[in-house]
Design goal:
single chain; alpha+beta; FAD/NAD(P)-binding domain; D-Amino Acid Oxidase, Chain A, domain 2; 3 domains; 10-stranded mixed β-sheet; 6-stranded mixed β-sheet; 35% helix; globular; binds flavin-adenine dinucleotide
């Protein structure tokens, strides 16, 4: 069956752009992704990292969204087990009654007001409904625990009587999930012999039916610069998340305002007392202002979020404020007063802008998390914008968008990703014991320590074996443990569209979340970029200084 000769150009390489590229290539459609910054530069890297049905959407009566999200949650647990893990969350509640009026009012479309606290009966009803919609044998159903019960999170017994426990899932490293989607897209393109390219640190200008691509460094006056390349696309999809309106302005497409993003801040702490209080589990609690707050395990650390504040500036300029961080720290101490968390206990923070649709909802929390595809009628080339959505539903949005594009291009659907394993999830070991055995076997095969294999595993899943084989000495000598980090970084530089030191630290090796991050480590990585011809010798110190400064200002993270 023939493929279209002209590519779909996707603007934006967040989770939605990447999932769409993969879905189109599954159908033999050529793709060029143009990303103005780096892959996962936006909301995808700054979310709460939950793969969830959205328990609170039940209260807003959005049952279809809950059902769809729960179906995608089940699918991701099955198809991407290297990135998506079950999570047991606990809702602390004070009394049996309370919250009915606000919830009923919200469900019927009212504002509902700020909740003084939902009672156990109301929460249990919501969880029964959640379990009913999920019907997922992979996860345990909800249960009600008494505060103080052994093994449960140790919350304030003077304030709460029960913990309502339920199941959801967590994707700790969406940045690595997106790399796996892109690796799949690349493999599909190679197998079908169709075009797939990703051009990062570039942006596009629409000239008639052509797309001209410029390096981002050309500045605002791209009109003056010579285009890096010109493409005749069959369709353009604007998948730039919270930037959707700004991108349309750049493309000179007149449209009503589509987006009304809100910023959300998180922090990460290694506080031992908080980890102990969590007992390896998670808390979902309503803060005093009615906003939901999550306290989640994050490897050896704890992730806490989030806020929900209208943001009108450029998304890349959204930063965590002191007020937001104080609010989150106070929220933790409210639930776990014994922990006495302080601002000095925070390892880092991050802030992202939700790509929410423009809405007349009374509060940011009430804005729908549904997605939609908007067609810009009258453009010289078919042009669509992806609006809204969640990490959880990226595959579904990609499938729907592909359906629309195939119909527009008069092409049949050949395949979809409903049962397609995400690279690194193939032959995945079931259960903790089998996982440890697989890692131990891999360590033996490549002469590495089990700890080093375990540290690299979350980046690749079962793909790690192939990566290690490709990173090994061509003469057949195994890597030793000291060479492994360098070899992996080198492999990533060669295969994952890396351009800068920030890309490596924040979105490939995920060192941002490690403790400690050292100046020596940054220099080693900069030297590798230099060795790969990506960084001039005289730019090494400049880039290390810029990365150190960005880590400080954007993430509150110190380099030792
Ligand atoms: C605080 C917060 C918490 C969240 N929590 C969750 C959660 O727990 N679970 C969940 O499912 N979802 C969650 N979400 C939502 C989810 O993160 C987003 O819906 C999703 O990541 C959006 O992906 P995207 O690809 O559309 O956008 P982004 O990830 O923002 O990607 C857009 C990309 O477009 C690029 N770009 C910008 N302008 C241009 C241009 N002109 N040309 C080319 N490229 C451009 C950007 O650099 C960026 O890489 C949360 C979001 C936030 C902010």
């Amino acid at each position: 069956m023939s493929s279209p000769s002209r590519p779909v150009v996707i603007l934006g390489a967040g989770v939605n752009g990447a999932a769409l590229a993969r879905e189109l290539l599954l159908n033999g459609v050529p793709v060029v992704i143009v990303e103005a910054n780096d892959i996962c530069f936006g909301a995808t890297a700054y979310s709460s990292r939950l793969i969830h049905g959205g328990l609170r959407y039940l209260e807003f009566g959005d049952l279809a969204l809950v059902r769809e999200s729960l179906a995608e949650r089940s699918r991701l647990l099955r198809l991407a087990p290297q990135f998506v893990h079950p999570l047991r969350l606990h809702i602390p509640v004070a009394g049996r009654l309370g919250g009915w009026w606000g919830s009923a009012s919200r469900m019927l479309g009212g504002v509902g007001g700020v909740q003084a606290g939902r009672g156990m009966w109301l929460v249990r009803t919501g969880l029964q409904l959640y379990d009913y919609y999920a019907r997922d044998p992979q996860l345990p159903r909800h249960s009600i625990l008494r505060v103080g019960q052994p093994g449960a999170p140790v919350v304030d017994a003077a304030r709460y009587q029960w913990l309502c426990a339920y199941s959801d899932a967590q994707m700790r490293l969406p940045e690595r999930f997106v790399q796996a989607l892109l690796a799949d897209a690349r493999a599909l393109a190679a197998a079908a012999g169709v075009e797939f390219r990703l051009v990062n640190y570039h942006r596009a200008r629409l000239t008639g039916s052509r797309i001209e691509i410029f390096p981002t460094s050309a500045g605002d006056s791209v009109g003056e610069a010579a285009p890096f390349e010109t493409i005749e696309p069959c369709t353009v999809v604007n998948a730039t998340g919270a930037w959707v309106d700004l991108t349309l302005q750049e493309l000179k497409v007149a449209t009503a305002k589509l987006m009304a993003g809100t910023k959300g801040t998180h922090f990460i702490t290694f506080h031992a007392g908080l980890r102990q209080a969590l007992a390896g589990q998670s808390i979902y609690v309503e803060a005093d202002d009615g906003r939901p707050m999550f306290v989640l395990p994050f490897g050896p650390a704890v992730l806490v979020g989030t806020t929900d504040i209208p943001h009108t500036g450029r998304p890349e300029l959204a930063l965590a404020s002191d007020e937001e961080l104080d609010y989150l720290v106070n929220g933790v101490n409210h639930v776990f007063p014994q922990v006495k968390l302080a601002r000095t206990d925070l390892e880092l923070h991050y802030c992202g802008v939700r790509p929410l649709p423009a809405s007349t909802a009374a509060t940011p929390a009430a804005v729908s998390r549904r997605h939609k595809l908007v067609e810009h009628v009258g453009a010289a080339v078919p042009l669509y914008s992806m609006v809204g959505g969640k990490l959880t539903t990226c595959r579904q949005l990609a499938e729907e968008t592909t359906g629309t594009l195939l119909a527009r291009l008069d092409l049949p659907r050949r395949a979809d990703s409903q049962n397609r394993v995400v690279p690194g999830g193939q032959d995945y070991p079931q259960g903790e014991e089998n996982l440890l055995n697989a890692q131990s076997q891999l360590a033996g095969e490549f002469g590495l320590s089990e700890q080093q294999v375990a540290a690299a595993w979350p980046l690749f899943g079962t793909r790690l074996k192939q990566v290690l084989a490709e990173s090994s000495d061509p003469r057949g000598n195994n890597l030793d443990n000291t060479q492994l980090p360098v070899a992996l970084a080198r492999w990533i530089i060669e295969h994952e569209w890396v351009r800068t030191l920030d890309d490596l630290v924040e979105r490939r090796l995920m060192l941002l979340y490690h403790r400690p991050l050292t100046a020596i480590g940054l220099r080693q990585l900069a030297e590798l970029l230099h060795g790969a011809g990506m960084l001039a010798k005289d730019q090494i110190d400049v880039q290390i200084a810029a990365t150190t400064e960005r880590l400080r200002t954007h993430f509150g993270k110190s380099v030792l």
